[in-house]
Design goal:
The protein is α/β, with parallel strands linked by helices. Among the domains are: 88 residues, Winged helix-like DNA-binding domain superfamily/Winged helix DNA-binding domain (Arc Repressor Mutant, subunit A, Orthogonal Bundle); 101 residues, Periplasmic binding protein-like II (D-Maltodextrin-Binding Protein, domain 2, 3-Layer(aba) Sandwich), CATH 3.40.190.10. The protein is 37% helix and 22% strand. The chain has ten helices and eleven strands. A hairpin with a 2-residue loop joins strand 1 and strand 2. The radius of gyration is 23 Å and the shape is elongated.
């Protein structure tokens, strides 16, 4: 293979392996068997005269040459996607792959119906929802769009606010029922706190445990909000949770809801290179609209 014979499809295979890090997983997204994916990567490396991946126990990891190629390949991907969408076909039908990065609380509680609807209405569309809490995943192109609780301040990104959401301090209702009426937070000082691991708080807007006025960090910590919620459900202690999560679990009761009340916002973030790709923008529109509906207590 000569450099002049390198085709866009070779870079499509390259991007799939860079994202999935395994030939088998990349093959599944491409509709190819792992052996074919391996041959395509080897052919591309031969054509370019450089190794693009280090092969090892952790899978296929980009070399320096591969990292240098990734942004160019991603730009090609966006341009090809835009060209395909403008070339004809059913304008109402979406096709291709869209990967959405979101915190686990969002993906578990606010995106299930939206992703299901997108898939059902667009049989040619593959929707990938991954728990990637940081908006920086877009700069590394690990996702096509991301949902975050803080707008990024750097990078070639476009940002729009989705909606506000409220958080309160929750505990299992049986714990409150067995105690005298709670008049202030100190009345529950014997209960353990549940929260994020302090050095793994991925968004500054989530670093709210200090607002409770406790000197010590929570006794039970996790970077997963779902794990925190399950501890709270089990009666392990107090936890700050979004109202949209707590309302799905009637065994949880808000503590001093009029006094302990936080408000945060969700943001939709896209890479500027994808600003004109209809597929990604339409998926973002559907996700944002369904999230607003869910957060307003509307039917999903």
């Amino acid at each position: 293979m000569q450099k002049s014979t390198v085709r866009w499809d070779d870079f499509r295979v390259f991007l799939a392996v860079a994202r999935q890090k395994r030939l088998g997983a990349a093959g599944q997204t491409l509709g190819l068997d792992p052996a074919t994916v391996g041959r395509r990567i080897a052919g591309l490396e031969k054509a370019l005269g450089r190794e693009l991946f280090d092969r090892g126990p952790r899978g296929y990891l980009l070399t320096e040459a591969g990292r240098g190629l990734i942004e160019c390949a991603q730009t090609m991907e966006s341009q090809v996607g835009e060209a395909v969408e403008l070339s004809g076909g059913d304008p109402e039908q979406l096709s291709g792959v869209v990967r959405i990065g979101a915190p686990d609380g969002v993906s578990h509680y606010l995106m299930i119906d939206a992703c299901d609807m997108l898939s059902r209405d667009n049989p040619g569309l593959r929707v990938e929802c991954v728990s990637l809490p940081r908006s920086s995943v877009l700069s590394r192109r690990e996702a096509d769009l991301a949902i975050s609780v803080s707008p990024p301040t750097a990078g070639r990104l476009t940002v729009r606010k989705i909606a506000d959401f409220d958080l309160r301090l929750y505990v299992r209702g049986e714990i409150l029922a067995a105690r005298p009426p709670v008049e202030r937070l100190e009345d529950l000082s014997d209960l353990r706190g549940i929260g994020y691991i302090s050095d793994m708080v991925f968004e500054r807007e989530l670093d709210y445990y200090a607002l409770l006025g406790r000197n010590a960090e929570p006794a039970l910590t996790s970077n997963s909000l779902i794990t925190q919620r399950r501890w709270c459900q089990a009666g392990a202690g107090l936890c700050i949770l979004p109202d949209f999560i707590a309302r799905e679990h009637p065994e949880l009761t808000a503590v001093l809801p009029g006094e302990i009340h936080l408000r945060r916002s969700f943001y939709m973030i896209l890479h500027q290179d994808d600003a004109r790709v209809a597929r990604i923008n339409r998926v973002a529109d559907v996700i944002a609209r369904r999230m607003r509906l869910a957060l307003s207590d509307g039917l999903p």
